[in-house]
Amino acid sequence: xxxxxxxxxxxxxxxxxAEAQAALVAAGDWSRVDAENVSEELAxxxxxxxxxxxxxxxxxxxxxxxxxAMPTHEAANGWRATVREQRHGIYDLISQSPSLVMEVAxxxxxxxxxxxxxxxxxxxxxxxxxLDEAIxxxxxxxxxxxxxxxxxxxxxxxxxxxxxxxxxxxx
Length: 171
Hints:
single chain, 171 residues, mainly alpha, elongated
């Protein structure tokens, strides 16, 4: 696939372009790989996983805040289920890409602020839920969900170290 053809395929039929690029890489035919677009797509894929971590962490913390503020609310069971679902989703992402554990630590402050603001705006309350509680809830991703590979202990240690330094910076 020459450069013009590769660019055309990239713009008109992404799936066909991706399959062709994968075949070229697998064959080691580096001279025909559409390096510019492959590089762009790989960077976008990594960024997407980081955004998903941040989004899931925000939802997890928002629902945890609501649970702490209103544990007997009629929606509490749904909030618990959402917290569990987000923990599992974050753990799954980290299991597939262990380097994302640092994204949990790096996103914690932003996710906490967003979740707090959302709860305040949507429910008219000021959650008595501090960053320390947020850290504890985020830690449950590694404590509550054990994977078959045993990576959670390694991820937990790395996460704890990173979060400790971030929390020290915030305080």
